[in-house]
Every structure is written in structure tokens, then in C-alpha cells.
Amino acid sequence: MPTPHAQGPAHSGAAPGGLLLCRAAPRAVAPLAHLLRDAMLLTGAGDTWSVLVPEGRPWRDGGEPVERVLTGWATALAVAAPWPVLALWWDADRAGYTLAAGFRRPVGYVWLANGTAAGEDEAMRTFAARLGLDPVLDVQELDHLTRPDPNADARARLRGLLAVLTRAGVGLPPGLDPGAAPGRLREAALRRPDVRQADGHGLREALRTELDAVEGVALAPWLPWAATPRARALATAQLAVGLPLAVWGLRRRSPGWTAAGALLVAHGALSLTYGLTHPPD
């Protein structure tokens, strides 16, 4: 059996990389993903999930830590849309995940390259609760990922996480393996018959898709096309969060967080504009 040192990202020479899993159909994800300003391939990852495969320019060309970039992207997508986003990331020293859902604080976990847990157990329980996983069986399996295991490196830990998520409907296509180099991930995505470039037709299409997806449920009054006080409140909050986030990202020369702030500003501004030009009857 291969040793952990033979498997892990830190010892296999794998380049930093990551994946973004969105609990939404590709048609809903594509327009918003385009605003992150990274060349991304998009394909289905189960009946109710999609996966974005980034090209990775912020960490490849700009030296930005992959964890920071993926966390920023996941946070922006989750705030701008009514579905959670799970970022899986890895580099030479560590691997981990970040789950973002709405305006709630993102939750994440980290493993060192040899599989040593470097996170808090409470994060796993919060992760399970936000995705609606079984509070007993699934949480027990997630707990195993936090315990010492000499045969499990960081890459194996991410695979274990995905195995639990299969019960939540996640099904990564063949070849999209955590720890693989970005080039190999994109090659695997391009072999998928439903793959598309995540360019969409702009933010307006994304917002209409959101409303179509939740029409008639409790979330609908919060969305831009509803033109309700709650929709305006959400748009104001997005501007309040997005503007300082974009400024902070520019000052830190962080492409990931700058794009995240810009996405929130664009989403909030369009929402407010729509509300002003299309008052409710």
C-alpha cells in the first residue's frame, strides 16, 4: 500500500488547485461564475449540483494563496445566489474545504499534507448541519476525518469528504480528483458532454434564473425581480459588504477577494436599479 508521503499533494508535485461545487444547475451557476473573471469550465456534478473548474490565474500568475482565492469566490457566489457553495482546495502543504451559504460566516477545515487534522471539530458539525446531512451517521463519518490515520493523506481526506457528500447528491465526474493538477482537471472536464464555459449571458440572466428556481417559495420575496422591501434590503446588504471587500482586495492586491467584492456590488446595484425602475404593482 502506498504511504501517505507517496500520495499527498505535497509529495506528488501537484500544483495548487481547487474546485467549486455549487448546489444548483449549471444554467443558474454560469452567469454568476462569469463575474469572477477567471476562465472556468462548468459541468454537472450530480442531479442537483454543478462543479466549476477554474483555470487558476490568481494563484498561478499573481501568487495569491489558493485557499484565499477559493474562499473569496465561494463566499461571493453564495451571497449572490440562493444556494450554498463548497470550495475544495489544495497546495503543496495543505488541503481543505470552505462552505459558504448566504451571509453566514463561511465554515472550513484544513488538513496538512500528511493528513494531520488542523481544524476544529465543531466546524465539521456545522458543515453537516448547513448541508442537511444526517446528524448521526454522516457526522460520525466526518468525525473520522478529524482523527489520526497514518494511511490517509490530505488528498484521501478530501476523497473521504466527497464520499459522505454522495448522500447529499454530489457526484464529481471521472477525472475531477482532489489534488490533481489544474491542467488535468480541465482535461477531464472537457471530456464531459455537458461541459460549458462559464460565461452565460450576464447577471440579468442569473437573477431571472434565481427567481425561476424558487418561485412560490419563501425565498422568492428576497430576490431582485420581486421588487419587495426584503429584496431591497438584501441588495443594500450586498453593497455594504461588497464595497469594502473590493477595496480591501485591491489594497491587498488579492484578485480573488477583489472579484468577490465586485460580484456583490454588481448584484446589489442591479437589484436596487431594478427595484427603482420596476416598482411593484
Please describe the topology of this protein.
Blueprint: H1 4-7, H2 9-12, E1 17-22, H3 26-34, E2 40-44, E3 50-54, H4 57-60, H5 66-80, E4 85-90, E5 94-100, E6 107-112, H6 121-130, H7 137-144, H8 154-165, H9 182-190, E7 196-197, H10 203-214, H11 229-251, H12 255-277
Antiparallel strand pairs: 1-3, 1-4, 2-3, 2-7, 4-5, 5-6
Helix pairs in contact: 3-10, 5-12, 6-7, 11-12
Question: Care to describe what's here?
Answer:
With 281 residues, the chain is an alpha+beta fold. The chain folds into 2 domains: 4-196, no CATH class; 200-277. The protein has 12 helices and 7 strands. Strands 6-5-4-1-3-2-7 form a 7-stranded antiparallel sheet, sandwiched between helices. A hairpin with a 3-residue loop joins strand 4 and strand 5. The N and C termini lie far apart (68 Å). Residues 1-13, 200-204 and 213-226 have low confidence and may be disordered.
Cα-based radius of gyration, to the nearest Å = 19 Å
How many domains in all? 2
Mean pLDDT: 79
> Strand pairing plus helix content: what structural class?
alpha+beta
Summarize the structure.
Helices cover 47% and strands 13% of the residues. The chain is α+β, with helices and mostly antiparallel strands and 281 residues long.
Core attributes:
281 residues; 12 helices; alpha+beta
